[in-house]
């Protein structure tokens, strides 16, 4: 046993340092070098810039509260939602009174539409709190409100939403969805702030 | 439930089976110490490592020496990471001036990554770039390589005849890291970057949103960690939300690839086992038993999540349970991911298991309680499964009244005792620590949800820690000295109180003679054997854990359908 331990000391210590250098420094550095060379946009967070100002990332949702914009899903990231330094879900379980109360509150705040049920994603929090997408139904559900706030025709907005619907890849991978930030940016182009 | 959802599950299962042989061939070359095409490039690094560390890779080690060397290496890397986490504030690449971790948190985190668990008491956003790379990523490689090394040692125990050694730990560790994990990760990480996963040493960008608010965006070397996190069934996310975060898992395609990379090596290990035993049908039989258990679990979780939460249907919502799920994945890919990540010992999540329906969330829990032998962790899955195979031939031997044999080795009292010892650590740690936490005030302070769901949060935590999974019912506030200490202990017990008896089995088997198969031997390749394996795994897991499930998810389900809230 003592010989076993003695013979292990040098390999254990030396390999810890060698592997730390190889796997903890060299490997991520090589990937970073290649990534920054070949895919700089993605490697730096798929940031969207407007007039040299970063307005967000293509991949991350952000908070929308005014009637002039389509809203994303409720978010449990940070105290005000969509905090990209504190990604999180609500973690409320199926028998949670707090969950039911929250959904009730969100439902009451939504305008009632006689034609369609409330799409479930519009009143449930995502897993990351940064979900950039909503379902096409959830976008269409908000058309009347946004159209009124902006004074544009609801049919034009519906067309805009439909242009933004992304379908499943290869027919079975992923769900139909709309990127809320991309949709809202196009909305601003269509109808600039007065 | 949709046609596309079932198509995804079945296509995924088919791809997993298709990967078994190609990955298995590569694994077999490493198991057997053969030269691979990559030796031309990486051979000098391997030899350089041996020279500097004073290792002779051709030395055969007894099981005791193999175990002691393996353990000391774990302790060395554990202390290395503990130091980095504690000293984070004064180390470089910490542009956000993050503080070091507290002693109990660093204890928990360092064990967590050493033991291939990647339970995260900390939130990923609180670690510096250096801590992520040098503290955590190295363990993602090394704990995975350790798991595969242990499995190789056990294979040698079955395959060798009257031998005193079971291989060389250092050679197994180095070869698996250099020739298997590192090359795949180079390609995989670049695929992830191309798909949108960040890879930069910068760690923060401030954005001004369309509505004029400030959004601070955390970045970092995500892709390099993400690749090995999945491939090595580690599961520790760069971000708190893990693979649900759009920066870790941006598209439905990356999601499919992430799930496949969780299963890839585990699936290949079954083929490698068959090849090492000189009969690939032995491997296919194991994979068949695994896939039966996997598909059963995936079906239940998908069915329950698609059925949704009656407590929200009452309010007028329709459809499946979208609480804690991302729109780009939807119900099917979220349900499937949860079953994959807990069947293997990965623990990455793309949806919040805590918000699953009661029975939908029970399957991930039960998967872990079965010992994560459904594909399982890299290496850990197959060695855990072989423990059940030893029990199964023992039971079959009792039924037919013959000394049990498995792949040419007699299974005798010593192997069966050691196998039971390896399995017994699961209930001891999971049920013992859950019971303790369910009565102590420090334990009861943890759960976010009330009622049976709160109990499930505690049960899930110890199951995940002991099983070295790392996923969580994340409502539990686990970053307290009480939970950090007990969960850290559970992770260490679950990993090494299983590995050491298994190495002892390997040593004991290696010393035995070869017993050729005769007409009277119980066949270990056909459907009868597959059925027996599935039965033994379910009976052992079920008898041990059903009472705890009745108190947690089953009570929760009954409350859920009755509309009772807590």
TrEMBL record, chain A:
Region span, Disordered: 110-129
Alphabetical list of Pfam families matching this protein: KdpC
Domain of life: Bacteria
Main location: membrane
Location in the cell: Cell membrane
Membrane topology note: Single-pass membrane protein
Record keywords, A-Z: ATP-binding, Cell membrane, Ion transport, Membrane, Nucleotide-binding, Potassium, Potassium transport, Transmembrane, Transmembrane helix, Transport
Stored PANTHER family: POTASSIUM-TRANSPORTING ATPASE C CHAIN (PTHR30042), POTASSIUM-TRANSPORTING ATPASE KDPC SUBUNIT (PTHR30042:SF2)
Assembly, per entry: The system is composed of three essential subunits: KdpA, KdpB and KdpC.
Purpose: Part of the high-affinity ATP-driven potassium transport (or Kdp) system, which catalyzes the hydrolysis of ATP coupled with the electrogenic transport of potassium into the cytoplasm. This subunit acts as a catalytic chaperone that increases the ATP-binding affinity of the ATP-hydrolyzing subunit KdpB by the formation of a transient KdpB/KdpC/ATP ternary complex.
Protein family: Belongs to the KdpC family.
Protein name, entry field: Potassium-transporting ATPase KdpC subunit
Primary gene name: kdpC
UniProtKB/TrEMBL annotation, chain B:
Domain of life: Bacteria
Coiled-coil annotated residue ranges, if any: none
Keyword flag Cell membrane: yes
Residue stretches spanning the membrane: 66-85, 134-155, 176-197, 252-272, 284-303, 329-352, 373-398, 418-440, 492-511, 531-552
HAMAP family: KdpA
UniProt cross-references to PANTHER family, sorted A to Z: POTASSIUM-TRANSPORTING ATPASE A CHAIN, POTASSIUM-TRANSPORTING ATPASE POTASSIUM-BINDING SUBUNIT
Assigned protein family: Belongs to the KdpA family.
Protein's UniProt name: Potassium-transporting ATPase potassium-binding subunit
Organism the protein comes from: Croceibacterium selenioxidans
Designated gene of the protein: kdpA
